[in-house]
Amino acid sequence: MRLRGAAALTLVSLALGACVTEMPNDPRLPSKPDYDKAALINTQLGLTYAAQGHLEVAEAKLKKAIDQDDGLAQAHAGLGYVYWQRNNIDGARGEFRRAIELNGDDPETRNNYGAFLCSQKEYAEGDRNFMLAVKNPDYSTPAKAWTNAGECARQAGDADRAEQDFRKALQIDPNFPPALAQMAASSYQQQNYLGARAFLERYFKVGPQTPATLLLGYQTEHALGNDDAANQYSVKLVRSYPESDEAAQLLKLRASAP
After folding, report:
1. Does residue 229 form part of some domain?
2. Per the domain annotation, does 44 fall within a domain?
3. What three-state secondary structure class fits 137?
């Protein structure tokens, strides 16, 4: 399971108000633009568009917000995320660093920056940012950073540390879908197929089916010798996601099965 998908962008709660302020002393004078409020609005719009996958529009809104207020950390962090998704690696790094320079205490920025660093195989620095995020008592979703830290450790080849981090995420939020999916995958890789089944069952109660989790379900049930359940996962994967890489992998697995 890819980290980027576990590193979802958190929308910033910003008050939306008028872009201009009135001049009460002389109503005949034109309104003066309120660039601070305009920057907040454009930041919120940019983050919303980014979450919806409209990256080009998101980039334009966030750049405008920065033009209006270069000191707005959320705008720089959001633009860093957009640049990352658009594979502008240098731009993403620069914007994340600028956001941290402005507000290094923001745990969500640390989490997203950590995810970015791990995607560039800078595992130690990524982990450092995740730990700064989880140590912040005001962080409302530490399970997210613990899960990302586990995925980062897994990519670095440290399976034991990865499982420890996933379990810490589940201690905080026992129903956190990404951590449940990761524990299912970890259990399967360790040939603990009953454990993988248990985590998958918990996952499907709280999370959406994805190509990756359906393929893992097929592999788990096949390993347990439960052909009926394996076939059910197979049908769901091929019907729901026929063009996915996981569907292609499934067809290869079935073709090579004895």
Report:
1. yes
2. no
3. coil
